[in-house]
Structure formats: structure tokens, C-alpha cells
Specification:
Radius of gyration of chain C: 23 Å
Shape of chain C: flat
Number of helices of chain C: 3
Number of strands of chain C: 2
Oligomer: heterotrimer
Distance between the termini of chain A: 82 Å
Number of helices of chain A: 17
Structural class of chain A: alpha+beta
Shape of chain A: elongated
Strand content of chain A: 15-25%
Chains: A alpha+beta (460), B alpha/beta (478), C mainly alpha (82)
Largest interface: B-C, 52 and 40 residues
Largest sheet of chain C: 2 strands, antiparallel
Chain lengths: 460, 478, 82
């Protein structure tokens, strides 16, 4: 099978692409509008600088060539959610071209192009009626088009998951498929030969799981047709979650002829090599670089690194908690073992809201490294801290285990035979020397009264 | 001296109040508009309110802008907040904009008095003003003849002194041609000199907001007031702050005038004769006149049609009654609602141009028509660069003919197609151009002389126009 | 030559109810009138580029304004009857 993906990513700029209305999520219907995004007669678009910058960031993160001059074009079609009856997009000279995304196998999936465009409004279908909210009209999108290099469902899943993470790490989008800030259309074809087969487009995948099912189903469906000697029709399909099948979408009266032409209201988009370089410099560490660094420099297990990197906020926390520690793997273990058990759901892990700071975790790790606490103790402490806060560290570390106290007392006795014989010979104050020894050995954590009582008890 | 400056001084000296001035114009409008059909909407209340504010400013000794208290009109495709703006089309009947066009806003801030919205060809598509849903505007020189189009109502209003000036729109000649038919001054600015924000679009890369006034100085004053960078329009030119009034009286001795033979040849004999006479006047003023050939000016016409209709077909896609505008009565689906609404509410000329525009952009035809037209446009612009290295301005007839009789052009496809042959090149190349009266034909209908300049050379054009106006004499002035 | 089917297709794209016979004649007339002969020409960009706007939120228009010209609306939504 061959799979190509067209992914729409909503950019998290503050304002829409062609006007200064807010892009904030939610808000009552039709309260984030102005003449421009509503497409009122006479209104004209004004391009948002940040949209171009975010587009360039996305292009750089996907190893694309950035076009110093690119053009906006009109894509003409009529639909109630499209205020102007055309979408301002980019047709033949997009912002970014010829990039790639590398899968864990090392295989490079080509990125044909990335272009900027505007989103449409939202339709709500009710019995016999349609309600329309244009708040989303004009929200900026980038469309990322892959080359047809994906050859399995697994690769498709990995591609989308990785693409999602890359976009989140460079901060251009939250990429929440359930909220619609990331949408995929999938092109699937099968072929026995080197030539590509007829492809069908499955639209509006709302989750990676559904996308995987859809690809699986569609590839099989096409395979079956070819086995029977039938041809695959080029169709636009939808995916029915319940039945797990693809189905042909109601074809419009005519195949859409978008009649692309240069947007006359917007001159060419120019970005200099210097500006592109400056944007490159502001890019945070990219996903692949992070992964490599976690594994090679920080010594993390591959699986642990991937799991931490799955959540940008977790990664951020981990990095702060592990700077300056000898074994970042310990920090990883605590996060993955204890904190992840505490934050049970996916969204909790995404949010990663804790009452402790990365510095608190770092302190704990340092204590384990300096053998102040055992691994086991550290886990206990962390569990407590997650509910009670950093204060736990302050109190609890002072107190020693009974067993630890015992051990130190016996050690003190063993190491100070003269003092012991003095005490046994009637010098009661000699016990204090032993207490002192225990205090020194425990670096002040022992409770002096307890130690004294224990020593007396042992020497009876 | 122009009328606006004169009236401005009279207002300052309290020789007349803004209220009196406005009332006198409203009375004239109420009296004469029924026969002339210049205005489609009179905004009496708003006009008097503005006049009142101006009078109080004068009483308070506050500084007054040149345009304060000056009665004016706006073509009905310029958005006016709270005032119906219909493009003289059924589909926008009752549409009330919630924002002001930048050009109107600038005039409003200066205290200009809006008397009303003027008649136009529907969606600015036409050259006689007869496609308006309100019927044609009449030529004040002879009401059996058209006012021209598409800014016919504005031309009539200004020429009949039912307004001191008006803003119109010029996409293929729509300010200059009616100005030439009615005998007033019409200025099309450089593309990018005047904001298009709020101008209801016909063809986005060709549309401009133009000025129509009774004399050159008034035209200059208004142009200076509305032009200049607007951040709301991404095609508006940064750093352009014209002050054309200051250059009006400069000597034009030594100026080089180019006359494209092809356009002169297209003109009717009477028009041609008057143009040649006008060129003599320029020579007497010390200018050098040279005839030259520029065949692409003729090819410009089909290129204009293709580009204008293509952009129009896209710009008019939004009129589907979903968010605004009129709607058909009965339909069985949303698709049908839209098709029927547009079918019933758009006039025939508009529908033709939408179909043509859709055709030239469609799959399989784009390269043959639209792409070629854009290439020709680039050729034309390159040629103009060379031409303006040689000449200061070009002079041509504004229109090959004088005003048509009412109803004449419906049956004359050739005349209709070729009506804009002299004017479209300025729109295609984004150049400024002005039309002013240079005489009358045997029927007593005005003949327009067109001055075309290089981009952002409005000062020079107005200067050349002003000097001609003086030489021509005041008997032709209104 | 433009055919009746072409006219139907164009009318559907343009979402326009038209007199198909009239349009057929008109379009066929125009298609020959609008033939242009223009050789290829190498154009340099004029050097005028799109101004870029700061990403700063400005107040949107009040909802009443947005809905003020709508024929049907409900609870702040534009409404269409299917």
C-alpha cells in the first residue's frame, strides 16, 4: 500500500491570519468577527506576521526549503461555512517545499510542501436547519502535504504522532485532534507494481486510531477489488467509526474546479534569508535532537526517552529536574514510575499539573545519588510530596528509619570500644560521645533522644 | 479659484452658514433629482446634523478643514456605516454596512456633508448607468442621453451642481467616462494611492476610488483629503502623502505630451477634432506634442474584460443571502436557494460577467485566457515605463464617443464592448488618469480629454489639467 | 466552441440560475472576441511585497453588528433552513 497525508494544523497565533480578531478557543458564537473575517462587502485581508513566522518554523523543523517569495491565491468554491465563497490559500508557490520527517526506522518520509491558509467557520446540523458560527473563519492553518512514501499503517501512525510532537515542540500548535486543531486527510492506494495505483482520499480523520482503522480497511477494500480484476475508482471517502468502513461521500454536482488565481488583495509574501536565519535561531531544540540527546548524552533508555518526550510539559519538567544530576535515568524512573501512576489519565499527563517543582524532584534525585535516601525511600517520599508538597522533604529526611538508626548505633558502638567500656564501667556521660558519633554518621538526621535511648538499650 | 476653497472662506467669514449651504443643496436635490435620477438615497437628516456641527465649530472659532460643511455625494458602492449601500443591485437591497469605507471616513472626519448615495451601474458593471436597479441617470446637458457609467449618478450630481463633489469608483473608466459625458472633472488615482477598504469590490486589481468635481482645483483638494496609506488595505502605497493643490499653478512650459495614435483613430470625428484643438492649446502653452504608436493599447481591451470578469466572478461569490443581502422567496435546498437568489437578484449584465469570469478561470481555459491576459498586462506596464521615460503625460480622448441616447447601447454590442477602449489601459497598468471637458459636439454633449500620467504623478496630471482649464476659459466651467 | 454542458457546468460553479440559451450565445461570442496574442515575457517581481501585521488582538465587532444583516439568526448563530 501507499499512503499520502494532508495534515491541517491550526496555528496558535493570537490573532487570525487576515485580521486582528482573537483566535482564542471557545467563546460564544459569532463574537470573534470583523468585516474582514466575515467577508463583508468591501473588506480586505491583512496578513499576520506571526503566521508567516510560524509557517517558517514548521518548515525548518521539517527540513524544508523556505521560499523567500511565495504567493497567496484564491481557491473558489461555495459552502455556507466559507464567508467569501473563496478561501485564501497558496497554490503554486507555497511557503515551504521539499522537506522530510524521519521515522524511528531511519526511513525519511518526504514533505512535499507546507502552505499557509485560512480556516472556515463551523456548521451545526440540526433537523432541517443549519446553524453557523464564523468564529473559526480566518483562524490560520498550515497544510502539510507528505509525499506518498508511507507504506504501512504503522508508518502512518508514527508519522502523524511524530508530526504532532514536532509541531508541539516548536510551539506553533497544540495539535489536539479531538479539538480539531489538527486534521488529517489520508490518500490510500494499492499496487502490485512499482507504479502507484489509483488513490482514494479519506477525509476528516479525527483521531490517529480511526485513521489507522480507515487505512487498514481501505487498503483491504482496494486489494479485494484488484484481486477480482476490478478497477479502483478515484473517490473521496468518509470513514464510519461505528462500522469501521470507508464510504463514498456524496459527490457534489460537479467535481470542484477551484479556479485558482493570484489573490489580488495581497502582494507576494517576502521573507529574507536573514529573517529566516533569525527564526531558525529562535527555534527550540527540535524533537529529533532531543531524543538523541536523551539517549546518547543523558543515558536514558530509548523507550523511556520516547515516553517522556511524548508530553512536552513532562519533557520540560524532566530536563529541569535532571540538569546537574549524575544519572538522569533516576529522574526518569521517578517520573515514569511514580508521577505517571499519580497522574493517571492522558490529559493529566499532558497538563502535568503538579504541586511540586522540577527543583524538588532534582533535590530528591541528588539525595538518592549521595545515598542520603534509598531508591525505595525516594519513591515513598515522592508519592507523599505529590499530595502534600515539598514540605515533606524538609521534615521527613531528617528522621531516620528505625532500622537505619539501629545500624548506626551498632556501628558507633563497634567503632568506639573505649567509650563503650567507659560507659559500662559506670561513666554515664560517655553515652553522649556515642550519641555524637551517631549524629555525625547520620549527618544530623538522627534524633538525638532516640539515639541515646537506643544506645542505652543495646548496651544493657 | 475652485468652488470648495471659495465656499470654505465664505463659511469662515460667516457670509453663509453650513446649514444654509446644505439646505440650499438639499432643496436643489429634492427639486431636480426626480428628473435626473442622480441620487438613489438622500440623507437629509445626516446632512443637516453635520452642517449643524460645523456651524457650532465656526461659532466656537475652531479650525475648520477645507471640506467642512461642503455638500457632497458618494457612489452607492462605497460603504457608509448605518446607511444603506446597495451597489444599485436587488441582491443588496436593504444591506446596511456596519463600518465606514476609509475614504468616506476620512471625509466624514473632516466634516464633509453627505447629501446622499448616487446611482451606478449594478456592481459597477456598465458604461451608461442603465443597468442600475433604479434605472438610468440622465445627462444634465440633455436628459435624453445617458450620464455614462458606472459612476453615472455621481457625474450627474456634480455636473448639475447637486453636489460640490462626489467619490466614485473607476475600474475600467467608470469615473472618467461619465465625467466626460456630463462635462465635469473625473480623476482616477494611481492604484494604491487611495484606499479601497470599504469599496464594494468589482475587480480587485483594477478598482480605484476616484474623485468627481466641477473643476480641477476642487478635484485636487478632495484627492489630497482621501489619498494616502491605509493599513487596512494591503495594496495601498506606504509613504504616499500627495499635496497636489500646491502644484496646480506651476508652468507647464516644456512638458512633453505623447498622443497614442491608435486611441485617437478610435474616436468619432467630432471628438477627434476637439482633441486636436486641445492639443493646439497645449502647444500654445509651450508643451511639445508628439504622436506615437502603441498597439497594445487596443489589445488591452480584451485583457481588461478577462481580468475584470474573472475577479468579479470571485468577488461576487459571497452574495448568497446567508450572512447579508436579499433572498429569493421559494426554494427546496440550500444549493437551490443560492442559485435562485443570485439568478433572480443579479441583473443580466452582472450574470453575464460572472459567467464569463468563471469561464476564463476554469480548468482548461485558464492558460488560454486569464494567464495570457495577465501577461499582456505585464507587457503593457513595461511598455508604459518606456513611454513615460519619453513623455511627461499622454493625452487621449476619454471616450471615442459622446453620450449615448438612453437605450441606445443595449442593442449595439460593438459600441458597448469598445466604449472603454481609451480608459482601460490606465486601470490595467495602475496609472492615474483624469478627464476634463474640452468642448461640446454638435448635439451640445461634452467631450472629454484624458490625461494619463505615470504612477503617483497625480500632481503633474492635475497641474496639466489646471493649466488647460485656464486656457480653455471659464465659459465651459460649470 | 462552448457547449450547453459547459454552460451548465459554469452555472453550477458560479451558483447562478441563468438563461442557458442566452449564455451559450454570449459566451461563444465573447470567447472569440477575447483571444489575445501575447508572446512569453520575462517579468521581474516589481519589488512590492505584502505588508505584515503585528499579531495583536483588537476588539471584534459586537455580535449584533455581525448578525444585523442576517435574514435568519438564532441564539447568536446564523441560521439556514435546509
Amino acid at each position: 500500500m501507499t499512503v499520502g497525508l494532508e495534515t491541517h494544523v491550526e496555528l496558535k497565533t493570537d490573532t487570525k491570519i487576515f485580521c486582528s480578531c482573537s483566535t482564542a478557543f471557545g467563546g460564544e458564537a459569532n463574537t470573534r468577527l470583523c468585516p474582514v473575517c466575515m467577508g463583508l462587502p468591501g473588506a480586505l485581508p491583512r496578513l499576520n506576521k506571526a503566521v508567516v513566522e510560524f509557517g517558517v518554523k514548521a518548515g525548518l523543523a521539517l527540513n524544508c526549503k523556505i521560499s523567500e517569495i511565495s504567493y497567496m491565491d484564491r481557491k473558489n468554491y461555495s459552502y455556507p461555512d466559507l464567508p467569501k465563497a473563496y478561501q485564501i490559500s497558496q497554490f503554486d508557490v507555497p511557503l515551504c517545499q521539499d522537506g522530510f520527517l524521519t521515522l524511528s526506522s531511519g526511513k525519511k518520509i518526504g514533505i512535499a510542501r507546507i502552505h499557509i491558509e485560512e480556516d472556515a467557520g463551523k456548521l451545526i446540523h440540526r433537523d432541517g436547519e443549519i446553524l453557523i458560527d464564523y468564529n473559526r473563519a480566518g483562524v490560520p492553518l498550515i497544510e502539510i502535504v507528505s509525499e506518498p512514501h508511507i507504506e504501512s499503517v504503522e508508518e502512518a501512525k508514527e508519522f502523524v504522532e511524530k508530526l504532532r510532537l514536532i509541531m508541539r515542540y516548536i510551539g506553533v500548535s497544540d495539535c489536539k485532534m479531538q479539538e480539531g486543531s489538527m486534521r488529517c486527510d489520508v490518500n490510500v492506494s494499492v499496487s502490485e507494481t512499482d507504479e502507484l495505483g489509483t488513490r482514494c482520499e479519506i477525509k476528516n480523520m479525527n483521531s490517529i486510531a480511526n485513521m489507522a482503522k480507515a487505512i487498514e480497511y481501505e487498503a483491504n477494500r482496494q486489494q479485494e477489488l484488484l484481486k477480482k480484476g476490478q478497477t479502483v475508482l478515484q473517490e473521496t471517502l468518509g470513514f464510519d467509526e461505528k462500522s469501521g468502513k470507508t464510504y463514498p461521500m456524496r459527490t457534489k454536482e460537479d467535481a470542484d474546479d477551484y479556479r485558482f488565481f493570484r489573490e489580488p488583495d495581497l502582494p507576494g509574501v517576502h521573507i529574507s534569508l536573514e529573517e529566516i536565519e533569525n527564526i531558525r535561531k529562535t527555534l527550540p531544540e527540535l524533537f529529533d535532537a532531543k531524543l538523541n540527546r536523551y539517549i546518547n548524552d543523558l543515558g536514558l533508555e530509548k523507550r523511556d526517552a520516547a515516553l517522556i518526550l511524548k508530553y512536552p510539559k513532562v519533557a520540560e519538567f524532566f530536563e529541569k529536574a535532571s540538569t546537574g544530576v549524575k544519572a538522569p535515568q533516576k529522574a526518569a524512573n521517578l517520573i515514569l514510575g511514580v508521577i505517571f501512576a499519580f497522574l493517571k489519565t492522558e490529559s493529566q499527563k499532558e497538563e502535568f499539573k503538579l504541586i511540586i517543582s522540577p527543583e524538588n524532584l532534582k533535590e530528591l534525585v541528588l539525595m538518592v545519588e549521595s545515598e542520603k535516601v534509598s531508591n525505595h525511600k525516594a519513591k515513598e517520599l515522592l508519592e507523599k510530596m505529590l499530595s502534600e508538597g515539598e514540605g515533606v522533604l524538609a521534615q521527613d529526611i531528617k528522621a531516620l528509619d528505625d532500622s537505619e538508626l539501629d545500624a548506626l548505633c551498632y556501628k558507633a558502638i563497634e567503632e568506639n570500644p573505649k567509650v563503650v567500656s567507659d560507659y559500662k564501667g559506670g561513666k554515664e556521660k560517655a553515652i553522649m560521645a556515642l550519641v555524637g558519633a551517631v549524629m555525625r554518621a547520620s549527618k544530623g538526621r538522627a534524633d538525638a533522644e532516640k539515639a541515646k535511648a537506643k544506645l542505652i538499650d543495646i548496651l544493657k | 479659484m475652485g468652488k470648495i476653497l471659495k465656499l470654505h472662506q465664505m463659511l469662515l467669514r460667516k457670509e453663509i452658514s453650513a446649514k444654509e449651504l446644505t439646505e440650499s443643496y438639499i432643496a436643489k436635490v429634492n427639486n431636480e433629482n426626480p428628473a435626473l435620477n442622480a441620487y438613489v438615497r438622500v440623507t437629509e437628516e445626516k446632512a443637516l446634523t453635520t452642517a449643524d456641527i460645523i456651524d457650532r465649530k465656526i461659532a466656537g472659532g475652531l479650525t475648520l478643514d477645507l471640506l467642512s460643511g461642503i455638500p457632497m455625494a458618494l457612489k452607492d458602492n462605497i460603504s457608509t456605516k448605518g446607511i444603506e449601500t446597495s451597489c444599485c443591485s436587488k441582491i443588496l437591497e436593504g444591506y446596511v454596512p456596519v463600518y465606514d469605507a476609509t475614504t468616506w471616513h476620512r471625509l466624514d472626519e473632516k466634516g464633509a456633508v453627505l447629501l446622499g448615495k448616487t446611482n451606478m451601474d449594478e456592481f459597477a458593471m456598465g458604461c451608461t448607468c442603465e443597468t442600475s436597479v433604479f434605472g438610468a441617470s440622465r445627462n444634465p446637458q440633455n436628459t435624453g442621453f445617458v450620464a455614462g457609467g458606472s459612476s453615472g449618478g455621481s457625474a450627474t450630481a456634480v455636473a448639475a451642481d447637486l453636489a460640490l463633489f462626489s467619490l466614485g469608483s473607476d475600474t475600467g473608466g467608470s469615473v472618467r467616462q461619465p465625467a466626460s459625458f456630463c462635462g465635469c472633472v473625473g480623476l482616477k488615482p494611481t492604484y494604491g494611492a487611495v484606499s479601497r477598504y470599504g469599496l464594494i469590490a468589482y475587480a480587485s486589481s483594477l478598482d480605484t476610488v476616484g474623485v468627481m468635481a466641477q473643476n480641477v482645483e476642487d478635484t485636487a483638494v478632495v484627492f489630497d483629503s482621501i489619498s494616502g496609506f491605509d493599513p487596512m488595505d494591503s495594496t495601498s502605497q506606504a509613504d504616499y502623502v500627495p499635496c497636489t493643490v500646491d502644484s496646480l499653478e506651476k508652468s507647464i512650459k516644456g512638458r512633453k505630451i505623447g498622443v497614442p495614435k491608435e486611441l485617437l483613430e478610435k474616436a468619432d470625428p467630432e471628438v477627434k477634432a476637439l482633441l486636436l484643438k486641445s492639443l493646439e492649446k497645449y502647444e500654445n502653452l509651450g508643451c511639445f506634442v508628439e504622436f506615437f504608436s502603441m498597439p497594445n493599447l487596443i489589445t488591452a481591451l480584451p485583457a481588461y474584460y478577462i481580468i475584470a470578469c474573472a475577479e468579479a466572478s470571485s468577488n461576487l461569490g459571497r452574495y448568497d443571502s446567508v450572512r447579508f443581502g436579499n433572498r429569493a422567496e421559494s426554494f427546496e435546498s440550500i444549493h437551490q436557494m443560492i442559485c435562485k437568489t443570485r439568478g433572480e437578484m443579479f441583473g443580466n449584465e452582472v450574470k453575464k460577467r460572472i459567467m464569463l469570469g468563471t469561464f476564463v478561470l476554469s480548468d482548461g481555459y485558464y492558460d488560454k485566457y486569464y494567464a495570457k491576459a495577465q501577461r499582456l498586462r505585464q507587457c503593457l506596464m513595461a511598455e508604459f515605463e518606456k513611454v513615460f521615460a519619453k513623455y511627461d503625460v499622454l493625452i487621449t480622448p476619454t471616450s471615442p464617443k459622446t453620450a449615448f441616447k438612453i437605450g441606445q447601447i443595449q442593442n449595439d454590442k460593438e459600441a458597448s464592448f469598445n466604449a472603454d477602449v481609451c480608459t482601460v489601459c490606465a486601470n490595467l497598468a495602475g496609472l492615474p488618469a483624469l478627464s476634463l471637458d474640452c468642448g461640446k459636439d454638435e448635439k451640445g454633449l461634452p467631450v472629454g480629454l484624458q490625461i494619463i500620467g505615470n504612477r503617483f504623478r497625480e500632481s503633474l496630471i492635475l497641474n496639466m489639467a489646471r493649466q488647460f482649464e485656464i486656457a480653455r476659459g471659464t465659459e465651459s466651467e460649470l | 466552441m462552448i457547449t450547453e454542458n459547459d454552460v451548465k457546468r459554469l452555472a453550477t460553479l458560479a451558483k447562478l440560475e441563468v438563461d442557458e440559451k442566452e449564455m451559450l450565445i454570449y459566451l461563444n461570442e465573447m470567447q472569440s472576441k477575447l483571444m489575445i496574442d501575447c508572446s512569453d515575457y520575462d517579468f521581474a517581481d516589481r519589488g512590492v511585497f505584502c505588508p505584515l501585521r503585528e499579531d495583536k488582538v483588537l476588539p471584534s465587532m459586537p455580535r449584533e453588528d455581525a448578525l444585523s444583516n442576517a435574514i435568519h439568526s438564532e441564539n447568536g448563530f446564523f441560521k439556514l433552513r435546509k
